[in-house]
Amino acid sequence: MPPALISPSENDYILRGVDSNIRADGRGRLDYRQIILETGLITQASGSARCRLGEGTDVLVGIKIELGAVELDGADEDVAAIKAKRGRVVCNVECSPIASQQFAGRGADDFNNELTQMLDRVLNGPQGGLNLEKLCIIPGQQCWIVYIDAIVLDYAGNILDTIFMTTRAALYNTKVPKTIIQDRGDGEIEFEISDDEEEWERIEGWDKVPVAITLNKIGSRHIVDATPLEELTTEAKLLVTVNKDGKVCGLQKSGGGSIEPSLLNDMVQTGRSLGQSLIQSLDEMLRREENDINLKRARKERIEKLGFFAAI
Amino acid sequence: MTFQFLSPKPHSYTDKVDADGDIDMLLKTERENFETKVVTPGELVTHATQYMGGHGTYTNETNERLSSVAGVVDRVNKLISIRPLHTRYTGEIGDLVIGRITEVSQRRWKVDINSRQDAVLLLSAINLPGGVQRRKTEADELQMRKFFSEGDLLVAEVQGTFQDGSFSLHTRILKYGKLRNGSFVIVPPALVQRCKTHFHTLPCGVNLTLGLNGYIWVSKHTTQTVEEFAIYSNENEEIDQENREAIARVCNSISALSRHFMCINDKTIVLAYEASLNFPVKDLLKLDVMVIITNEVNEKMTSLKAGMRR
């Protein structure tokens, strides 16, 4: 990726602005931009969501639930026994080359891997939240595989936070068909997937899926929701993933700079409280959207998704 | 520390109907004596076959000339082309542009000016410290990064074009050169109008440099003239809270105008700034506030226009 450029005077302007709590766009250090959210806009997917952050950043997440074989890992018996009883989550993040000049050509390859790995580590990790055992249909044989595909359509800073919150929204929107398991006696188990579109359930544990807050250290202070120019000024980044109980589910530090222990503590605390209130607002929004749809359905009105035809 | 989630909104077609009952920018009576015509992709530009097709047009099986972009029809004698609204910047000689240095090479800098290719700034086309008429020496060639290095923002003028369509720039006027003390905004180049001057000082004590390539620099107003030797300095002056807020407010007003695709010049920016004074600076990023501000600017512009007609 060719590095985006910033001039020393811009750098200094942003640095001093952060210090005096007025950023270049007038926000304070801990102010987030407005978020425009829509779920269920891709009809072919099992679940989908699109988030736009302020002027730019645009992330679309599609989730597809597919039948597959459970992962049989023979390396360690204990691990294999656990894995045989579990469904799987497969993540993939891609930055569209039209989103930013930095992503043109092969430029985004490394960055895509980094983002994919970050999402994968959190969702497949012990704090991922999703109940993977529930996704298993027949232990040792069949399970649901959850494919999470995120695409970054436009870039105006703070991609990771947006990816995580869009993923959470898309998981809420995801419909897993009901399965009926029949035991044929003689050890053979069969199952049937319900044809009824009304018969579905939500992925268990979607509400425990964490969101991420990226804290950017600029000078001796930290900010959230950085713009591209602010990201260039950032010395060190700390990604804090938080679940709805306010528990820290993961930390990742990136960038070349260092973070002092006292500041680190400060940043984790900020990330924690911000993350928790982000989840609250997000869930409220999701519930509001669903209520609207249910209300319309009850009144037999047409339910229209705006998708890319939205004015704002 | 609050998070605001919004639902997307559909386009509203109803609220901007004019006296004709449509949403065209002009009234029917005005349209007749008005040359420009706005077209969308696939729209018929002309039936007549005697015209030559320029950029942004194509012909179909029945030899009708259609538009391939959204923009305004540009006709020069028999050549018809469409000037797109969303495009990269195509410069003309004498244009004032703002650019960012991307590369330092032999006796020249490469400058990103939002054009299809990077522009070229020759070492011989800048003011060297120590006087306008000074000749460049080998020492100057060796310390080019002392003048401009990668990432630096500068204001320059388009001096000419090369064979391959890229531009050459010059900064041989003291007003041109490195940019300091402010922040950078990007808008679509089609929105910035060609004016007599592109350097403005707004009544709120903010300096504004409108690059025709859609790059805009908003900075603190300084009365002191830059000393000859300090033109390549990277140091910012002290900017107090009040100035910072004013700069941020102007930047946000410009973004609001560009988001609603309104033309950007000193007049509209001042109107937007005045309309924004009812809100705290950071609220200007909110979509509903942007609508209020741009509507107010729209109203004032129409009443100004009506006043001029009378």
Automatic annotation (TrEMBL), chain A:
<dbReference type="Pfam" id="PF01138">
    <property type="entry name" value="RNase_PH"/>
</dbReference>
<dbReference type="InterPro" id="IPR020568">
    <property type="entry name" value="Ribosomal_Su5_D2-typ_SF"/>
</dbReference>
<dbReference type="Pfam" id="PF03725">
    <property type="entry name" value="RNase_PH_C"/>
</dbReference>
<dbReference type="InterPro" id="IPR015847">
    <property type="entry name" value="ExoRNase_PH_dom2"/>
</dbReference>
<dbReference type="GO" id="GO:0034473">
    <property type="term" value="P:U1 snRNA 3'-end processing"/>
</dbReference>
<dbReference type="GO" id="GO:0005730">
    <property type="term" value="C:nucleolus"/>
</dbReference>
<dbReference type="InterPro" id="IPR027408">
    <property type="entry name" value="PNPase/RNase_PH_dom_sf"/>
</dbReference>
<protein>
    <recommendedName>
        <fullName>Ribosomal RNA-processing protein 42</fullName>
    </recommendedName>
</protein>
<keyword id="KW-0271">Exosome</keyword>
<dbReference type="InterPro" id="IPR001247">
    <property type="entry name" value="ExoRNase_PH_dom1"/>
</dbReference>
<feature type="domain" description="Exoribonuclease phosphorolytic">
    <location>
        <begin position="209"/>
        <end position="272"/>
    </location>
</feature>
<feature type="coiled-coil region">
    <location>
        <begin position="279"/>
        <end position="306"/>
    </location>
</feature>
<dbReference type="GO" id="GO:0016075">
    <property type="term" value="P:rRNA catabolic process"/>
</dbReference>
<keyword id="KW-0963">Cytoplasm</keyword>
<dbReference type="GO" id="GO:0000467">
    <property type="term" value="P:exonucleolytic trimming to generate mature 3'-end of 5.8S rRNA from tricistronic rRNA transcript (SSU-rRNA, 5.8S rRNA, LSU-rRNA)"/>
</dbReference>
<dbReference type="GO" id="GO:0000177">
    <property type="term" value="C:cytoplasmic exosome (RNase complex)"/>
</dbReference>
<dbReference type="GO" id="GO:0071035">
    <property type="term" value="P:nuclear polyadenylation-dependent rRNA catabolic process"/>
</dbReference>
<dbReference type="GO" id="GO:0034475">
    <property type="term" value="P:U4 snRNA 3'-end processing"/>
</dbReference>
<feature type="domain" description="Exoribonuclease phosphorolytic">
    <location>
        <begin position="32"/>
        <end position="177"/>
    </location>
</feature>
<dbReference type="GO" id="GO:0000176">
    <property type="term" value="C:nuclear exosome (RNase complex)"/>
</dbReference>
<dbReference type="GO" id="GO:0034476">
    <property type="term" value="P:U5 snRNA 3'-end processing"/>
</dbReference>
<dbReference type="GO" id="GO:0035925">
    <property type="term" value="F:mRNA 3'-UTR AU-rich region binding"/>
</dbReference>
From TrEMBL, chain B:
<dbReference type="InterPro" id="IPR025721">
    <property type="entry name" value="Exosome_cplx_N_dom"/>
</dbReference>
<keyword id="KW-0269">Exonuclease</keyword>
<feature type="domain" description="K Homology">
    <location>
        <begin position="182"/>
        <end position="224"/>
    </location>
</feature>
<dbReference type="InterPro" id="IPR036612">
    <property type="entry name" value="KH_dom_type_1_sf"/>
</dbReference>
<dbReference type="InterPro" id="IPR012340">
    <property type="entry name" value="NA-bd_OB-fold"/>
</dbReference>
<keyword id="KW-0271">Exosome</keyword>
<dbReference type="GO" id="GO:0071028">
    <property type="term" value="P:nuclear mRNA surveillance"/>
</dbReference>
<keyword id="KW-0698">rRNA processing</keyword>
<dbReference type="GO" id="GO:0071034">
    <property type="term" value="P:CUT catabolic process"/>
</dbReference>
<dbReference type="InterPro" id="IPR004088">
    <property type="entry name" value="KH_dom_type_1"/>
</dbReference>
<dbReference type="GO" id="GO:0071038">
    <property type="term" value="P:TRAMP-dependent tRNA surveillance pathway"/>
</dbReference>
<dbReference type="GO" id="GO:0071035">
    <property type="term" value="P:nuclear polyadenylation-dependent rRNA catabolic process"/>
</dbReference>
<keyword id="KW-0539">Nucleus</keyword>
<dbReference type="GO" id="GO:0000177">
    <property type="term" value="C:cytoplasmic exosome (RNase complex)"/>
</dbReference>
<protein>
    <submittedName>
        <fullName>Exosome complex exonuclease rrp4</fullName>
    </submittedName>
</protein>
<dbReference type="GO" id="GO:0000467">
    <property type="term" value="P:exonucleolytic trimming to generate mature 3'-end of 5.8S rRNA from tricistronic rRNA transcript (SSU-rRNA, 5.8S rRNA, LSU-rRNA)"/>
</dbReference>
<comment type="similarity">
    <text>Belongs to the RRP4 family.</text>
</comment>
<keyword id="KW-0694">RNA-binding</keyword>
<keyword id="KW-0540">Nuclease</keyword>
<dbReference type="Pfam" id="PF21266">
    <property type="entry name" value="S1_RRP4"/>
</dbReference>
<keyword id="KW-0378">Hydrolase</keyword>
<dbReference type="GO" id="GO:0000176">
    <property type="term" value="C:nuclear exosome (RNase complex)"/>
</dbReference>
